[in-house]
UniProtKB/TrEMBL annotation:
GO biological process per UniProt: translation
SUPFAM superfamilies for the chain: Ribosomal protein S6
Organism: Candidatus Nomurabacteria bacterium CG1_02_31_12
A Pfam family reported for this protein in Swiss-Prot or TrEMBL: Ribosomal_S6
Name of the protein in question: Small ribosomal subunit protein bS6
Entry GO MF terms: rRNA binding; structural constituent of ribosome
Length: 161
């Protein structure tokens, strides 16, 4: 017989929720909305693995959000993400609850892995210089002379064949 803990471990998966919050909620209310999302995940039996506090970003294009029969256009938003482990049967319920929250412009839930998937930034030395291919004064290229008569003969031979 399986107990409930083993059953949850078998059905649980790792997910990542990326989201955009409306910019009108104000800087002081962002931690409140962020905390509510984390609380929602844990209340549904999820375990938070890693997360990032939402930060204001400029959007690549305007996004629309209809609230109370009014179309709102946004050029900026607070972007944040949460990586968590949750039972696969609870994800649909989480999606429905986040969908109903008017503070979210858009969100995306992805299946992922527990390991850190953020790419590390490459370090480039300041003294790194690209090698340019410039010719030195002493080097001369061999110049091949073009004989127009030979070229004409070759062309005529190709056309005739």
């Amino acid at each position: 017989m399986k107990n409930n803990d083993e059953e949850v471990e078998v059905n649980s998966r790792v997910y990542e929720l990326g989201y955009l919050l409306i910019p009108t909620i104000g800087e002081e209310n962002v931690p409140v909305v962020y905390g509510n999302l984390k609380e929602l995940i844990t209340s549904l039996g999820g375990e938070i693995i890693s997360d990032e506090m939402p930060k204001m970003i400029f959007l690549a294009y305007q996004m629309l959000k209809v609230t109370q029969n009014v179309r709102n256009r946004f050029d900026t938003a607070y972007f944040g993400w949460v990586k968590f482990e949750m039972g696969s049967d609870k994800i649909l319920e989480l999606k429905k609850k986040v969908d109903l929250d008017p503070n979210f412009i858009r969100f995306l839930i992805l299946k992922t892995v527990k390991e850190n998937t953020i790419a590390a930034k490459r370090f480039i030395h300041k003294d790194f210089k690209r090698k340019t291919s410039t010719k030195k004064d002493g080097e001369n290229e061999e110049v091949v002379s073009i004989n127009k008569e030979e070229i004409d003969k070759e062309i005529e031979a190709m056309v005739a064949a």
